[in-house]
Amino acid sequence: MTAKTFYLETFGCQMNAHDSEKVVGTLLHQGYRQVDAPEAAELVLYNTCSIRDKAEQKVFNRLQQFKRQAGKGKVFGVLGCVAQQEGERIFEKAPHVSLVAGSASYTKLPEMLVQLEAGNRRVTGLSLDTEETFETPFTRRDNPHRAYITIIEGCDKSCAYCVVPFTRGPERSRAGAGVIEEARGLAAAGYTEIQLLGQNVNSYRDPSPTGWDFATLLARVGEIPGIRRVRFTTSHPRDFGKDIVDAIDANPVLCNHVHLPVQSGSSSVLQLMDRSYTRDEYLRRIEWLKKARRNIAITTDIIVGFPGETEADFRQTLDLLDEVEYDSLFSFKYSPRPNTAALAMGDQIPEAEKTLRLMILVEKQRAIQIRRNSELIGCVEEVLVEGRHEALGQWIGRTAQNRTLNFTGGGEALVGRYLPVRVTRAGPNSLVGEAVV
Ligand code: 5AD
Ligand code: SF4
Predict the structure, then answer these.
(1) Measured in angstroms, how far is the CA atom of residue 428 from the centroid of ligand 1?
(2) Range of the domain at 346
(3) Nearest listed ligand to the Cα of residue 18
(4) Do 53 and 162 have their domain in common?
């Protein structure tokens, strides 16, 4: 008998990317074979994101594209955040879909597959009240050097713009011992970089009697022999404690990079967003990071055009950029989302104004990044060699601060190794250098 085939496309954040690694592992264990084109698959899965409307529309475009192939032995499934958000409505919007399952239900995937194989055309996994986290010994990791480990799932915050509490459910932390065991196993298997994942890693709390907080867990993972780099994402400023900065200072294995989404530089917008910190409280955390012994890179997320954001509010965000001098930033136009508190505020800022604010923000940040990256010219940075950029004729490296540093003087045998590279040129988004031999 030939194996059943599946195709999986992933949208969205690292949590989703890692969920997909677990889903792939589960499917392989169930006797499925992965193919790289939807045309060749009996089971076509989309692991979806609904953080902004644009992200959500992608899955419906995909489903539309392959509609005619439904039936004839082909089954479609929608996983992830759009699945959880839209639930059974997906069957109405796209009647050729047979499986709709949110991330809190993935532990039941094997049972859902059995139902699909039995010919059931409406299989759902939409429960959010699960206490469990999705763990499987079968995870099929995409990257041979860097491994994601989920430490906390869901989110208990109530940011007015955000779908995540509705799509990923309440916070559930994994037992610390299990995290350490997984990280040790990964080190033994040759992984050297660990990335701890959660929507809000700072509110991690070990459910076992040891009761570790996040800084303790981070420090413990950093002590595992064979692990050269530990990263974590994402942090919420309110729960971001100085103990995390101290942990980074104490152990060079913990990467000197913190992603600390601010969302807005205006305290009144932050209040409308229900972020539970003010601009000054945020800046206090930035001060801890800047006063650290190590040079810690700081990156952030910003939303422009949130309902009620005045020009003066926006200028405060621009001003914050100058004050913090972020090493990198992700910026977004506000997108109204179902179920969220901000939905009732309407979409007050016209699209053209949002576009303008985004452009101004991006331009300002570009200049900051050119300036910050240029300061590194002449310095030697250690990179993890990730591969080859054929078009540029360079090797791809990543620094501990999470900068891309492409370089000459590498070699195939160095992929996955750590190498000192001297920075020779700097652009807004990456550095260029030469391997130090
Ligand atoms: N509209 C625009 N951006 C959003 N984000 C989250 N929700 C929205 C929304 N409704 C952004 C935030 C978050 C990042 C992952 O996506 O900046 O930190
Ligand atoms: Fe998208 Fe948020 Fe879901 Fe990640 S958690 S896939 S960013 S909606």
Answers:
(1) 23
(2) 146-374
(3) 2
(4) no
